Amino acid sequence: MVRKRAAYLRVRDRFRRRRRGKPPKEGWLLPELARLGGVTPRTVRYYLEKDLLPSPPFYGTATRHQRPALVRLLAIQRMKLEEHLPLDAIKKRLAHMEPAAIEAYAVEKLPAGPAATALGVARAQPMPSLGEPDSPPTYKSERWDLVQLLPGLALMVYADASPLVKKLAQQIYDHCASAAPKAVTTPPRA
Fold first, then answer.
1. Pick from 132, 131, 133, 115: which is nearest to 123 by CA?
2. DSSP three-state, residue 63
């Protein structure tokens, strides 16, 4: 029995990854990294298995991924979406790039959002151009009359509507006004 237990412990120790020191306080947990990269945690695990992402020191549930992992994840996503590269080609391409080049590629077209903020490259949203203040509008504008039929019910009638449409709107208004419940006043109880 003692021999079996000793053999079990040797095998277990050989395959068990041990925690080394205290886990870092900075970085992102697996679900956070996945959310920032726009993928699922399962996808991040798959990329780790395929050596597309750097493996962090293992600390169990306290394992945190650092900046290079997020940068590579964003670069992988961009290569998949824009260049339609398979994972093998992405792996080869990333292997031949310097870390600074990978980061430049990853943040080049990164829109403002949580990932840009996490990397510290958040860009201000561009303000829409208001154009010339005195230029006439190019959109077509119309005038509408709002007819209150009942509390919470209104009818919109085009201001330049035909007489037939205005007559129909008046009939609808008259019908609703006559059908509206009258306020019933009851004498107070003595």
1. 115
2. coil
pTM flag (> 0.85): no
DSSP 60: G
| Ranges for all domains in the chain classified under CATH 1.10.1660.10 | 22-119
Q: Which CATH number fits domain 22-119: 1.10.1660.10, 3.55.40.20, 3.30.530.20, 3.40.50.300?
A: 1.10.1660.10
- The amino acid present at 60, given as its one-letter code, is G
Q: Which residue has the tokens 């829109």?
A: 111
- Could you read off the pLDDT of 161-171 as tens digits, one per residue? 888 888 988 99
- Token code pair at residue 165: 């449409």
Distance separating alpha carbons of residues 48 and 131, to the nearest angstrom:
49
What's the maximum distance between 2 C-alpha atoms anywhere in the chain?
A: 102
Residues 44-68 have pLDDT tens digits of: 999 999 989 988 887 777 888 888 9
Query: Cα–Cα distance between 115 and 69 in angstroms, integer?
Result: 12
Buried b (16+ CB within 10 A) or exposed e, 126-152: eeeeeeeeeeeeeeeeeeeeeeebeee
